[in-house]
Amino acid sequence: MALKNIRLEVMQTVEKKIDSYIDQYLIPVDEIWQPTDLLPNFQKENYMDEVTQLREEAKELGYDFWIVLVGDMVTEEALPTYESWLMDMEGVDQHGRNGWSKWIRHWTGEENRHGDTLNKYLYLSGRVNMKEVEKTTQHLINDGFEVGTGRDPYRNFIYTSFQELATNVSHNRVGKIAKKKGNKMLARMCNIIAGDEMRHHLAYREFVKTIFEYDASEMMIAFQDMMQKKIIMPAQNLRQSGGKMASAFDDFSNAAQRLGVYTTFDYIDILEKLNAHWEISKISGLTDEAEKARDYLLKLPSRMTRIAERIKIPQDANHFKWVEANGVV
């Protein structure tokens, strides 16, 4: 009970700065981009020229690319799961609309545009079976996800700090591949979405850094606990129609690794970046348990690197109902 009370006190303390965090890391609705800024404008007379260009550029992208892009889009479209999860954290008053619920709603408003944009792009591209994709999205929302945080804000903010940067890496890499293939429209979409994810990462990273100032030992233990469990991707339960829960995730992940969009080494790099930014090697006044947690976190990147160097990624692409083998539905 005492630990719970301390967490609530810390959350209430950080909450006092929430308006400044919103001003610093989020963008007002009337100033931020919207999906229609990046997609063909059907109110223009030449809209079909833009659609034709989109479809022609899409022909240059390979099978693994479409699997990864669909997986990224579906992950973004499962936003209702993520909002309800964050709204359930200790310290969040979604009915009284306190500062934390305000942050979550504003964050959700920005995130909502990502899936919307990529969904419309995939639909217009004509390269994927949208009905199968839509079934996957509905399954992912139905299945939900369990990331090992419970209602603990410390563990939740560790997760979001990590995951937002992972999403930034993924969208950024997809954008680079699209640009290399001459797909300027998709490259721009992915780069702009990646920019949003980076801002969100910086915000959650700052929440954790602030909590370290008030409750360092418990924050350190929470960090260790999340890394021991491993940061589970939001699409962990990915499935296709007719498949069991989580049956498609490994194949999607392998496609991402083959493309170099998101790899085990990226996971390790993110951990190292968080260790460095939070300066966990310099934090003083820790309990014995927290000292052991810090030691674990500092040694973990090199341990994981040794394991990652031995992992072999399957080179054969598995069949997805989303995309035919030649990339054309």
From TrEMBL:
SUPFAM superfamilies in UniProt: Ferritin-like
Cofactors (names): Fe(2+); Fe cation
Binding site for Fe cation 2: E111, E164, E197, H200
Biological processes annotated in GO: fatty acid biosynthetic process
UniProt cofactor note: Binds 2 iron ions per subunit.
Superkingdom of this protein's organism: Bacteria
Chain residues that bind Fe cation 1: E76, E111, H114, E197
Keywords: Fatty acid biosynthesis, Fatty acid metabolism, Iron, Lipid biosynthesis, Lipid metabolism, Metal-binding, Oxidoreductase
Record's keyword annotation contains DNA repair: no
GO molecular function, one term: metal ion binding
The protein's assembly and partners: Homodimer.
Family: Belongs to the fatty acid desaturase type 2 family.
Name this protein carries in UniProt: Fatty acid desaturase
